[in-house]
């Protein structure tokens, strides 16, 4: 359980005991919270006309989900998805309720971990089910309770607050990706090319792809909440959902830009490796040419033919040595100007 889920967390409602049960509260027509036991949900729903119940669960077991299903009359297929998790982001309508699946992201020990949040939205209730790496929604509830007038609108405001919190938590992660890419770019253009740089670039692109798979479907989800489901989404909340929709688009565009930059960085890194290898081959070829010149001359005069006129000359050795030196110096100058050495 996250530290923010402790009983002493700054939430103005009591936390019922039980595995997976984080909080359960009833918000009346005035938006004020009241303590509620999970056993009294059905009675409260039957007696309520304008209020709503907000139930928060974290990795609940099957009996707890079965209890939530019976209290809120949730669809069994949606409950099955919420129990097993590992669902794609989506929004589905089940009668007079909505089932929303979102992917959350959290930075843990320098690495990005992904989790899921499943939301059940009805006319008089909101049920949130968290799995895996997901920050507690206790701060969301606390901020909502500071605006009872908006809570009086109904569960659509609480839904907006959770969606806004999830999208806002994407931003620092994207910023961390940007900083890591900047660091890798400096390593790419350093004098020494390291294999670990290529590995980190590949992993960064993989994480950005996962991040995009989490953020991109939210645009369709938020677009539906902006335009559709009038029986569940209050018209006064459409502008709020549109604001979250704009944030999701901006984050998705930032992720796409980073993915393109990482792809370009991978190409540049490979190109620089190829150029460096070419430089090494050029230098080896240059030194090989310098060694080949005296080798050729020495092998020529190493042929023991008696009819060779140079063998009888008095200054043949000195002349040969001088010619060899001049050839080597000339080759060195030429190769140096051609930047092969």
Key traits:
341 residues; alpha+beta; disordered N terminus; seven-stranded mixed β-sheet; Methane Monooxygenase Hydroxylase, Chain G, domain 1; Beta Polymerase, domain 2
Structure summarized in a few sentences:
The protein is of the alpha+beta class. Among the domains are: 1-151, CorA soluble domain-like (Beta Polymerase, domain 2); 277-337, Methane Monooxygenase Hydroxylase, Chain G, domain 1, CATH 1.20.58.
Outline: rod-shaped
Beta strands, count: 7
**Global mean pLDDT:** 85
CATH class of the domain at 1-151: Alpha Beta
* Biggest sheet layout: 7 strands, mixed
Q: Helical amount among residues, as a percent range?
A: 55-70%
Radius of gyration over C-alpha positions, nearest whole angstrom: 35 Å
How would you sum up this structure, described in words?
The chain is an alpha+beta fold and 341 residues long. Among the domains are: 151 residues, Beta Polymerase, domain 2; 61 residues, Methane Monooxygenase Hydroxylase, Chain G, domain 1, CATH 1.20.58. It is built from nine helices and seven strands, in the order ββαβααββββαααααα. Helix 6 runs parallel beside helix 8 and helix 7 packs antiparallel against helix 8. The chain is rod-shaped.
